[in-house]
Amino acid sequence: MPEPLDPKQVKNVLIVKMSSMGDVLHTFPSALALRKLFPKAHLAWTVEATHAGVLEGQAWLDETIIWKRRTSWAAWRTFRSQLNARKWDLAIDFQGLLRSGWITWLSGAEHRVGFSGLRERPHWFYNNIIPVKSWDCHAVERLAWLVEHLGGELDTLPIERPYLTQQPPQNCSAAKYLFPLCPQPSDRQAVSQWLQKKGFDEVKHRLVLLAPHCRREANRWPLARFANLADRLLSDSRIKVALLGGPGAKTFCDQIEASASSDLWRADGQFSLLGSAALMQRSDMLLTGDTGPMHLAAGMGLPMVVLFGATNPVRTGPYTSQAVGLNAGLSCSPCYAKKCPLGDRIPRCMQQIEVEEVYQAIRGQLHFGELPAETSFFQLNQSTYTHHAGHSGGSSKGQGPHRMASPPSTSSPKQSPETDAKS
């Protein structure tokens, strides 16, 4: 075992959190607490190239070490050289995978910190092992335990998430301090030029972003529903609708555009990660499943409507007070699966969320008229998120969403923090 850690003697600190976008964002509060705990230390972050964009412009971060998942021998030598260029006093594995544990060990850090009891057993590579207290909390709060174990403080956590207790959304600026994203002037200029070309008037119009692509099939709402929703929204001349996503969303957005009868704007693939964040800053609403743009929007303070099926909002819901959400209320949800375990090509938990429900939720947040109280906040069926603990419940098509009487239980098999925000 190494000698006890003396914060005053720590000169070099390595954060290991490589993916995905949501998981990287969830680590921001802990990373900021590390900077406060070690104000004079060199603070570096190991991250996959795909997600490194969200770290751009962060003045509190001294170095970004890029990991490429499918890499050449030359790229591997570059990574290894950069990793070993410093004598690390402390390396913290916020990822919780065998690969990230190995990189933590490879750094040669005197103190290597991470969780025990994870599925891939990365604790073999640590010499300072911390048990997971509970899975019944958000990933942001769970990751913070690693920093608190070292003596750091995160007095801004937890935040209020009204959707977990049947409360309507609240305007809150906490997210921008927890996730201080920094779109560059070039990002903002690109967005301004794009909106100007589209004829967008921020006084007259309301811009609704649709993010149809989720990497996990079980998180996807049917594309035809997106097209129908877009047509419904665009029947009001005051509303403009743009499709959002990275290059991987193109096929999905193509299908939606082909099915819609209205003029949809295509923002997918147009901007960098921080450019998308800048677009969110100019928008009024986001519709999304449990995927990367949801977490990006939380960081930008953008109100959103979230569609949940296979995943659990207690663990991976938007870490914001400005969320509205819907789910079908099926007893098999959340299953935490990548694909529907029942064999459905389109998971029934997503299939049974109707266009009308989503439309009303969005309209209610655009301030073009008030919705009935029972549909103006995040509605989740308590049984949906407690069935692993012995509860039961369900919903049939057409019944609509259900209220959640209390925060859900999330008892389930052990899993790594890295799996939390997979899109």
- What is the CATH topology descriptor of the largest domain? Rossmann fold
How many domain regions? 2
Radius of gyration: 21 Å
Poorly predicted segments: 369-414
Trace the largest sheet across and list its strands. 3-2-1-4-5-6
Tell me the total number of β-strands: 12
What profile does the largest beta sheet have? 6 strands, parallel
CATH architecture of the largest domain: 3-Layer(aba) Sandwich
SSE topology string:
EHHEEHEHEEHHHEHEHEHEHEHEHH
- Cα distance spanning the termini: 38 Å
User: So, the CATH homologous superfamily of the largest domain?
Assistant: Glycogen Phosphorylase B
The DSSP helix count reads 14
Secondary structure: helix percent = 25-40%
Class based on secondary structure composition and strand pairing: alpha/beta
Strand content: 5-15%
Write down the overall geometry. Answer: globular
The level-1 CATH class of the largest domain: Alpha Beta
Task: Explain what you see.
- The protein has 423 residues and is of the alpha/beta class.
- The protein has helices at 21-26, 28-37, 73-83, 98-106, 139-149, 174-178, 185-198, 223-234, 250-259, 273-281, 292-300, 313-316, 348-351, 355-365; strands at 12-16, 42-48, 63-67, 90-93, 111-115, 128-130, 206-211, 239-243, 265-266, 285-289, 304-307, 323-326.
- The strands form 2 sheets. The chain has a 6-stranded parallel β-sheet with strand order 3-2-1-4-5-6, with helices on both faces. Strands 9-8-7-10-11-12 form a 6-stranded parallel β-sheet, with helices on both faces.
- The chain starts with 11 loop residues before the first strand and ends in a 58-residue tail after the last helix.
